[in-house]
Write a structure and sequence with these properties.
The complex is a heterodimer of chains A (about 290) and B (about 325).
Chain A lengths: L6 H22 L2 E2 L1 H5 L1 H11 L14 E4 L5 H11 L39 H15 L7 E6 L6 H12 L5 E7 L2 E2 L2 E2 H4 L5 H7 L3 E6 L3 H13 L5 E6 L17 E2 L8 H23 L2
Parallel strand pairs in A: 2-3, 3-4, 4-8, 7-8
Antiparallel strand pairs in A: 1-9, 5-6
Helix pairs in contact in A: 1-3, 1-4, 1-10, 3-4, 3-9, 5-6
Chain B lengths: L16 E3 H15 L3 E5 L9 H6 L4 E3 L4 H13 L3 E7 L8 H10 L5 E5 L17 H6 L5 E3 L4 H13 L4 E4 L4 E3 L14 E4 L4 E5 L3 H14 L4 E5 L2 E3 L3 H11 L2 E8 L4 H12 L4 E6 L9 H7 L4 H14 L8
Parallel strand pairs in B: 2-3, 2-4, 4-5, 5-7, 6-7, 10-11, 10-13, 13-14
Antiparallel strand pairs in B: 1-8, 6-12, 9-11
Helix pairs in contact in B: 1-6, 3-4, 7-11
Classes of the chains: A alpha/beta (about 290), B alpha/beta (about 325).
């Protein structure tokens, strides 16, 4: 699949994913908004452009792996997986509902294509590291890559730094991690709740190759993955600077939209209407600008 | 007496003794020989948890994790996702003591066949004291859906249990001890996950134990016999799933039950048996174990004596109790 969509098409797809997120959160009536919205470009690029995967054969033995460490952001993963063909887009309407495969936090045993079960923070990165260790040091499958996404608030967890130390020691170069640096967590801004800076310095001191990018720029994401793959003596982390709630004007930059109830964390009926209208307008601009390329 | 092949010398003063962790060490190496998917991860305790034999034989499949128990089990979960059968080891106080939520989410709910091997469980750890004497692990592990919980009775059984867990495809907890304990089983004794075994038949009371406490119950039964009390001894190395049939069959016959474990009885093995019997066959019950308190430093034998977990210390309590409570019969 790699490279089949143009940058404009990927941007358009990310915009579709945002609409899916708003619609599924509206139907669910609870969940998380800001993180899923700001991860749309990163997950779209990974699933539609970067990863070697087969949606109709989720357990394909040569696939790349994706681990969502901050499981509460799963609405974006569900939306991207549906758009990519793992399951029907209509199923997104079952998010968080009784009997759904789309549990409030991702459960591997419920939905084919998920590699892990996450929600409690801090342990997805180490699971990704476990796969990367196996591929690199036991099975010698050097052509396969392991991608992981963590939140920035999640970096408060000690388990993250245990994993960072482990991946550094074993030079897990097939492990490529995106930190969603949106600067918010539940109680406020990350630097007020528990400061993370110097974040670059932290990862570097654990033996990682560090890049910082605009997490909404598709080409930057593609370039960062290319660079990470070229680094063969260290694990790679990409600190992706993002705007929480990206694409919906009244959610952007506001930590109150991390998650919660309708009107106070996820959109209510009226807010969803406004959000979808904005996203349709944005989508129109992408197509228009793309047409001029 | 019973079909179970007991070590004919189990009651001798010079009975062979070995820590259960040693049997695990041998079993893990054999499991590694039998299946190349078996990998081992250790949190800076390779020799004391007896992973050394495996590490030496299969250096490419042994992973040193450092002192990081949360990472230990979550990396193992990832390795299981990549097709491996990971055994993780540390002291039980740290794993599963420190990393319970990671075990719950990434191994049990995620249904990955990771083996949590907790060594140095129980008060017989000795001089290290209460911090290192894990007593709550049975309770912590047996409440988890999907989790199998095993406390082998001696080193021979620990070896068999290790091999069985390598092929059961399930999240599993193996509880091991630091100290040498008498070997009461033999190479030909049966071991199957989920089975309890009648070690000795009797009529007046059922003594059901897990882990190395089953040896104390065997010795207790001999002493009770000298006082004219016929005790049946059931050894339940699998705490979850409990072998309800074997326990109920015994209790139906004797109408009284005593449990023993080197752990908190609240939520522990005694708790598990009490849950079973209170629903299906309520009978008078007495539980030996730790009652809502921590251990302390001391020699292992001294501590077992102090906390009433030897056949000698149990004997007067049991004879007095049997004198007081009736044998309940079905239809009671």
């Amino acid at each position: 699949m790699s490279g089949q969509l143009t940058t404009t098409q990927l941007e358009q797809k990310a915009n579709d994913v945002r609409k899916d997120i708003i619609q599924s959160l509206l139907a669910a009536g609870s969940g998380h908004s800001a993180g899923p919205l700001d991860l749309a470009e990163i997950l779209t690029t990974l699933y539609f452009d970067v990863m070697n995967i087969r949606p109709n054969e989720p357990e394909w033995k040569d696939r790349d792996f994706f681990f969502l460490s901050n499981g509460h952001c799963v609405p974006v993963q569900y939306a991207v997986m549906a758009e990519r063909g793992y399951f029907p887009v209509e199923e997104l309407g079952t998010l968080r509902k009784f009997g759904s495969r789309l549990q409030g936090h991702p459960e591997r045993t419920k939905l084919p294509g998920l590699e892990n079960t996450s929600g409690p923070l801090g342990s997805g990165l180490s699971q990704a590291a476990g796969v990367a260790y196996t591929l690199q040091h036991i099975d010698s499958q050097l052509h396969r890559f392991v991608y992981a996404v963590t939140g920035d608030g999640e970096l408060n967890e000690g388990n993250i730094w245990e994993a960072a130390m482990f991946a550094g020691k074993y030079k897990l170069s097939q492990l490529i991690v995106f930190v969603d640096r949106n600067n918010i967590q539940i109680d406020g801004n990350t630097e007020d709740v528990m400061p993370l800076e110097d974040l670059r310095g932290k990862w570097e001191s654990f033996g990682w190759h560090v890049q910082e990018i605009d997490g909404h720029n598709i080409e930057s994401i593609q370039d960062a993955v290319g660079m990470a793959k070229a680094i063969t003596n260290r694990p790679s982390v990409v600190i992706a600077h993002t705007i929480p709630g990206k694409g919906v004007s009244f959610m952007e930059y506001d930590y109150h939209w991390h998650g919660g109830a309708p009107g106070q964390g996820v959109p209510n009926q009226d807010q969803a209407k406004v959000a979808l209208k904005e996203l349709r307008t944005l989508g129109g601009k992408i197509v228009h600008e793309g047409a001029g390329e | 007496m019973s079909d179970y092949a007991l070590n004919p010398h189990y009651a001798a003063d010079d009975v062979t003794q070995e820590p259960t962790r040693a049997g695990f060490g041998r079993g893990l190496k054999t499991a590694g020989e039998q299946d190349e998917r078996v990998v081992a991860l250790c949190a800076d305790l390779t020799e004391s948890t007896q992973m050394g034999k495996f590490a030496e034989a299969f250096p490419g499949r042994f992973v040193e994790m450092g002192v990081a128990e949360q990472n230990l089990v979550t990396v193992a979960s990832g390795m299981a996702r990549a097709g491996k059968i990971p055994f993780t080891s540390s002291y039980a106080a740290f794993s599963p003591g420190r990393n319970w939520e990671q075990i719950r989410t990434t191994i049990c709910l995620n249904d990955q066949p990771v083996k949590i091997v907790g060594s140095h469980a129980g008060i017989s750890v000795g001089p290290d004291g209460a911090t290192h004497q894990m007593l709550e692990d049975i309770a912590l592990m047996r409440v988890l859906p999907n989790m199998i919980v095993i406390a082998p009775g001696d080193s021979i059984e620990a070896e068999k249990a290790t091999l069985a867990l390598a092929t059961n495809g399930k999240p599993s907890y193996l509880r091991l001890a630091r100290e040498k304990t008498p070997i009461f089983s033999t190479e030909s004794s049966p071991f199957e996950v989920g089975k309890a075994y009648v070690l000795r038949q009797g009529e007046d009371v059922t003594l059901v134990g897990t882990g190395t406490m089953s040896y104390q119950l065997l010795m207790l039964a001999r002493k009770l016999e000298a006082e004219g009390i016929s005790a049946e001894v059931v050894h339940a190395p699998t705490i979850k799933p409990l072998d309800e049939e074997t326990i109920l069959n015994s209790v139906r016959k004797t109408g009284r039950v005593i449990t023993a474990e080197e752990a908190q009885v609240a939520g522990g093995f005694g708790g598990a048996v009490a849950e079973l019997l209170s629903e299906k066959m309520p009978v008078p019950m007495k539980r030996f174990g730790m009652y809502d308190r921590f251990g302390e430093s001391g020699a292992p034998a001294e501590l077992l004596q102090h906390f009433g977990l030897t056949s000698d210390t149990m004997l007067p309590e049991v004879t007095a109790w049997i004198g007081k409570v009736p044998q309940y019969r079905s239809g009671f």
